[in-house]
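Postdoc handover notes: sequence design on the structure in folder B. Input C-alpha cells:
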C-alpha cells in the first residue's frame, strides 16, 4: 500500500496547537476555520435531535432534504428534495463525485488543498490552471481552453471542472461574466462543473451579485454546500449537495448515494435535525449569517490593508475569510533575508515572527512564488466571550483583543519588508 500524506492544513493546525500548548505565542492564520462560538439555538436543536438514534435513509431524511431544496430554490436554483443528498461534511460528497464521474479534473491554481489529493485518490489527474488577475476560485478562461487541449494531446481526459465560489484561498468571488464564460467552455468541452459554494453565504457586501454556474448550465452543474464555514460548525460535519435534474444528474446522484451507503451510511441523525433547522432559514439564522459575513469582511479588509500597505499585491477580499498576498514586488528586499520562495517565506514568518500561514505551494501554486494564504477568521479572539464581542461589534477591528493582534501582524510585516 502506498503511504499517503495527511492534508497539510490539518498537519499545520496540529503542530500549532502543540507549540501553543508549550506556551509559544503564535498568530495562527494557517487554518480555514471561523473561530466563532456555536450559535445557542443550534445547540438546542442538537440536544433535541439526540433522541434520534436510527440510521435513517442514506441520502438523508425527507425533512432535511426538503429544507436544503428550499435553501437552493430561494437562491434562484429551483430544487426538489430528491436532488439533494446530505452527508457528514461536503468533503466526502466532493470525493464521491470524483469516484463516480469518470475523467480527469481541471482545478484553479491556487485552490483549496483537497481537490487535487481527492482526484489522486480517485485515480485521476488534477490539472491546475492559473486564476485570473481579478479573482480566484476559477481558472482563467483562455488558459483553461489551452490546458484542456494540452491535457488531451498528452492522452488525458479532462471531464470535470471545479470552481470555488467564493474562493478559498483568495477570499474573492468570480463575477457573473466569468461564470458565463466558463459555463460556455464547459458546454463546448463537455465538462461537468462542480461548484463548491460552501462560502456562498459569506459575501461581505450583500449587494455583490452571485451567479451560480447551476443557473447558467443547470444540467451539468453539481453544487456543494455545508455549515462548516457559514455557521462555524466544522466539527459538526454537516454538508449537502445538489444534483442536476435529468438523466445525467440522476446517474451521478445514484452513484454518490451508492458510495455513501458503503462509506458513511448517512449524516448523523441529530445533525440532520440541526441542518433542517438552519436550511429553513428562520430570521435568527439569517441575522447570524449577516453578522458573521460583516465580521469576516471587516477583518479580512484590515489584513488586506496591512499587506498592500507594506507593498504586497493582493486581490481585495469580497467573500469567505482569507487573503492571498503576493510579495513579488518585494522580492529583492526579501532575498536579502534569504527568502526566495514560498517555503522560505512561510518558514521566516513562523520562525521570526510566530506568524503561521499556509504557503502557496501547498495550494498548488508555483513554489518559486512569494505567496501564501492567511485565514483572517482565526483573529476573533481566544475565548467565546471575545469571539461573541467580535460578532456584536460595529467596528470589530477596534476591539482591543483584535487590534492588538493586528498591530503585531502589521509590525511584523513592516519589519519583514524593510
Ligand atoms: C473550499 C472548501 N470546500 C470544502 C471544504 C470542506 O468543508 P466540509 O467541512 O463541509 O467538509 C472547505 C474547508 O476547508 C473548503 O475551504
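Designed sequence:
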Amino acid at each position: 500500500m502506498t503511504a499517503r500524506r495527511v492534508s497539510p492544513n490539518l498537519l499545520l493546525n496540529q503542530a500549532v496547537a502543540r507549540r501553543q500548548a508549550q506556551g509559544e505565542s503564535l498568530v495562527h492564520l494557517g487554518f480555514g476555520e471561523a473561530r466563532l462560538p456555536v450559535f445557542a439555538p443550534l445547540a438546542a436543536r442538537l440536544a433535541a435531535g439526540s433522541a434520534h438514534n436510527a440510521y435513517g435513509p442514506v441520502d438523508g431524511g425527507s425533512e432535511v432534504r426538503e429544507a436544503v431544496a428550499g435553501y437552493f430554490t430561494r437562491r434562484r436554483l429551483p430544487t426538489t428534495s430528491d436532488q439533494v443528498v446530505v452527508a457528514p461534511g461536503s468533503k466526502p460528497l466532493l470525493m464521491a463525485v470524483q469516484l463516480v464521474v469518470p475523467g480527469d479534473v481541471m482545478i484553479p491554481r491556487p485552490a483549496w488543498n483537497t481537490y487535487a489529493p481527492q482526484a489522486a485518490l480517485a485515480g485521476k489527474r488534477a490539472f491546475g490552471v492559473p486564476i485570473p488577475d481579478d479573482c480566484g476560485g476559477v481558472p482563467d478562461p483562455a488558459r483553461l481552453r489551452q490546458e484542456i487541449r494540452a491535457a488531451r494531446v498528452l492522452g488525458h481526459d479532462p471531464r470535470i471542472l471545479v470552481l470555488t465560489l467564493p474562493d478559498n484561498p483568495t477570499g474573492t468571488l468570480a463575477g457573473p461574466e466569468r461564470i458565463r464564460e466558463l459555463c460556455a467552455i464547459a458546454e463546448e468541452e463537455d465538462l461537468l462543473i462542480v461548484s463548491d459554494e460552501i462560502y456562498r453565504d459569506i459575501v461581505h457586501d450583500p449587494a455583490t451579485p452571485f451567479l451560480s454556474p447551476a443557473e447558467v448550465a443547470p444540467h451539468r452543474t453539481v453544487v456543494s454546500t455545508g455549515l462548516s464555514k457559514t455557521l462555524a460548525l466544522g466539527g459538526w460535519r454537516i454538508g449537502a449537495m445538489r444534483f442536476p435534474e435529468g438523466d445525467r444528474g440522476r446517474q451521478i446522484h445514484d452513484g454518490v448515494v451508492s458510495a455513501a451507503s458503503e462509506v458513511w451510511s448517512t449524516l448523523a441523525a441529530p445533525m440532520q435535525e440541526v441542518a433542517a433547522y438552519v436550511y429553513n432559514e428562520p430570521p435568527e439564522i439569517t441575522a447570524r449569517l449577516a453578522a458573521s459575513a460583516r465580521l469576516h469582511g471587516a477583518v479580512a479588509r484590515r489584513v488586506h490593508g496591512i499587506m498592500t500597505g507594506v507593498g504586497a499585491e493582493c486581490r481585495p477580499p469580497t467573500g469567505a475569510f482569507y487573503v492571498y498576498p503576493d510579495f513579488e514586488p518585494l522580492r529583492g528586499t526579501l532575498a536579502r533575508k534569504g527568502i526566495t520562495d514560498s517555503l522560505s517565506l512561510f518558514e521566516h514568518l513562523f520562525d521570526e515572527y510566530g506568524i503561521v500561514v499556509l504557503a502557496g505551494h501547498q495550494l498548488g501554486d508555483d513554489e518559486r512564488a512569494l505567496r501564501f494564504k492567511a485565514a483572517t477568521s482565526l483573529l476573533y479572539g481566544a475565548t467565546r466571550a471575545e469571539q461573541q464581542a467580535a460578532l456584536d461589534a460595529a467596528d470589530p477591528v477596534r476591539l482591543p483583543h483584535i487590534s492588538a493582534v493586528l498591530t503585531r501582524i502589521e509590525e511584523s510585516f513592516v519589519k519583514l519588508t524593510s
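Context for whoever picks this up: The two ends are 49 Å apart (CA to CA). Don't rerun without checking with the PI first.
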